[in-house]
Amino acid sequence: MSLVEERTFEADPSRIEEITAFVSAQAEASSVAARRLPHLELALEEALVNICTYAYREPPRDVTIRLLLDDRRFAVELVDEGIPFDPLEEAPPPDLSSGLEDRAVGGLGVLLIRRVTDEVHYRREGGRNILSLVLNREC
């Protein structure tokens, strides 16, 4: 995949809307189907909340957004220098057997990300967590 755009933001909840708008505009310009944009935005928001909340013990806290493209896929890489954590392997599985009233708050983010993207990957590289969210452009 080819890098289309890369931008670094402060990893703060107050920036999530700005980051999501940036990614969504690029996805739309890259011919991601309009009906898939809410899926991308949901996955991105879930991943960003986790980075903003858990990745860093202290400032400075940044997240770099890399947008990649090939002839059939659009990908968002979220890159942080926080605590090593593979959400695809280390996040506890959600409790789907309990009723809503009995279930702990949170814990559904990774499940949602997996369900609304076509692919999701994690790697640790050069002291950085890299989470890739991939959508097929034609779907």
Explain the overall architecture.
By secondary structure, the protein is an alpha+beta fold. 32% of the residues lie in helices and 29% in strands. Helix 1 runs antiparallel to helix 2 and helix 2 runs antiparallel to helix 4. The relative contact order is 0.21.
Sheet/helix structural class:
alpha+beta
Radius of gyration: 15 Å
Q: How many β strands by DSSP? A: 5
**Helix-strand sequence:** EHHEEHHEE
What spatial form do the alpha-carbon principal axes imply? globular
Question: What's the overall average pLDDT, rounded?
Answer: 90
- The total of helices stands at 4
List keywords for this structure.
five-stranded antiparallel sheet; 4 helices; 139 residues; globular; single chain; alpha+beta
Spell out the blueprint of helices and strands.
Blueprint lengths: L1 E9 L5 H14 L7 H19 L6 E8 L3 E8 L6 H4 L18 H8 L2 E7 L2 E9 L3
Antiparallel strand pairs: 1-2, 2-3, 3-5, 4-5
Helix pairs in contact: 1-2, 2-4
GO molecular function: ATP binding; protein serine/threonine kinase activity
Pfam family, one: HATPase_c_2
InterPro entries: Anti-sigma-factor_SerPK, HATPase_C_sf, HATPase_dom
Overview in brief:
Helices cover 32% and strands 29% of the residues. It has 139 residues and is of the alpha+beta class. The model has no long low-confidence stretch (mean pLDDT 90).
